[in-house]
Amino acid sequence: MSLLQQADLVSVPPSRQAIRQRVRQLRQQLTASEQSQAASQLAEQVLNQAAVIAKQHVAVYLANDAELATGPLIQALWQAGKNVYLPVLHPFCPGYLLFIHYQNHTELKPNRFGIPEPRLNCANLMPVAGLDIIFTPLVAFDAKGNRLGMGGGFYDRTLSQLPANSPCQVIGLAHNCQQVDQIPTESWDVPLQQLITPAKYFDFRNL
């Protein structure tokens, strides 16, 4: 059975670091074919959500460390006439992200983690509060919408800038195999409102 076909929740030890290690191993074991299939299915899942189609300013990410690839999704968003934005490391506020308008001709350069990002240009900057949707990467998630990232806290800090009544939708993207039984939470964690895998849409807002 391939990892994409696994239906059961991943059984892992309870510590956050143990979860990171185990789930990263699982997604790194996905074959190139499985990754490609998952990326195509994700784009289809996202574009099937009416709430996404109704929005205009959408932040996405470029995959790293076997994260669910977003290339087909970005292409689909462009074709649907959406404005797409990519995160860049904030040059003056360590630990925070900025979002830059991304087009098919946008020049990319690797940041200090080796992840491609647009060159910082204030003319192309979109404030976090101006985004309609922020698609976030993650290492693992649970049925309550708790999100476990790589440990740097970049998205948690950045998303904390959103006002409580912000209409911006924060939506996690993950492989099916990244769901776990339970994630131990910390006070700074920002839970997900929604999450999309290649096989399913999760809505955590009414839990």
Automatic annotation (TrEMBL):
The protein's name in its UniProt record: 5-formyltetrahydrofolate cyclo-ligase
Single annotated GO MF: 5-formyltetrahydrofolate cyclo-ligase activity
Transmembrane segments: none
Requisite cofactors: Mg(2+)
Organism of provenance: Arsukibacterium indicum
Family: Belongs to the 5-formyltetrahydrofolate cyclo-ligase family.
Alphabetic keyword roster: ATP-binding, Ligase, Magnesium, Metal-binding, Nucleotide-binding
Catalytic activity: (6S)-5-formyl-5,6,7,8-tetrahydrofolate + ATP = (6R)-5,10-methenyltetrahydrofolate + ADP + phosphate
Cross-referenced Pfam families: 5-FTHF_cyc-lig
Enzyme class: ligase
Enzyme Commission number(s) of this protein: 6.3.3.2
InterPro entries registered for this protein in UniProt: FTHF_cligase (IPR002698)
